[in-house]
Amino acid sequence: MTTMTTLPQISLAKLGADATRREEQQRLQAACEECGFFYLIEHGIPKKQITQAIESTRRFFALPQSIKERYDHAAQGVYPTIARGYSRLNGEILHPEAGPDAKEVFDLGIDSEGDRPFAGITRLPDDALAPGFARSLLALQATVLSRVVPQLGTALAELIGMEQGWFRSHFSPPTLEQRVIRYPARSGTCAKHTDGGFFTLLLQEELPTRSLQVWLGGRWLPVPSLPDSLVVNLGDMLQVLSDDRFKSTPHQVAHSGLSDRISLPFFIYPDIDAHLTSQQGRKKFSVAEMMLRNYESVEAGNGAGRARELQ
């Protein structure tokens, strides 16, 4: 494989059009097998909606610490505890050797009743405290879940050889971890790790600094912000379901820019009750068990995904 200097670009519009679907699926397959990361262009999310979510997130993180902590993990009433709510600066460890990440986080999910893991209602500040924060993030969630997740997920499921309708059967609804993250100017970090789910969609500010870094070809590849694109990376569950044909690639963040960086990742998992088998039948797992192991590892400071395998 030749040394990669930039991520491939995949068009969601072309994946959905009869005339271009086959060629774009071939390009998507190559991206998944070779690097596990790609830019998603022509994705259908209005730029104004992304901008509003970024601006309202910036306002939330500028609130006094005492106000933000009213909405911390303990205030949410969701299991596992760290699945929802606010986490202060240096409050999370994604790689044990790196120590706490220099980032501030708020986690949301799909609001639902019940006592299953990851179910519950996210407690969010109202407009009086954080103008537009809840409204813009929930609107963006609805758009991502309706316009991007089904189309991209179905294409990925087809590429690993799953039967027609497999994605809809196991992702209606998906289990979602929606995060908003602030990386402080000159010092923001997120230690090397892999993502645990099926795939991740990253919406981010278009900044000149290349803060996201992807482990490819034995080196860290800095990933610039490509205007009007999302960054997509594959998760550990998809690697397992593809019998290791598709790559869940390590990545990290080292933000040295002169202003804070706002990042809006969506981590897409199957339905929490699903028990899944890889296409060749060699690997099986419970979604709930795999997710809970990963969250317990993060909460204990032992890292995320395959972090402990990454030296």
Give a written overview of the molecule.
By secondary structure, the chain is of the alpha+beta class. Helices cover about 30% and strands about 25% of the residues. It contains eight helices and 14 strands. The protein has helices spanning about 10-15, 20-35, 45-60, 65-70, 135-160, 165-170, 235-240, 285-300; strands at about 10, 35-40, 85, 105-110, 175-185, 190-195, 200-205, 210-215, 220-225, 230-235, 250-255, 260-270, 275, 285. The chain has an eight-stranded mixed sheet. Strand 8 (about 210-215) and strand 9 form a beta hairpin. Helix 3 crosses helix 5 (about 135-160). The longest helix has 27 residues, at about 135-160. The model has no long low-confidence stretch (mean pLDDT about 95).
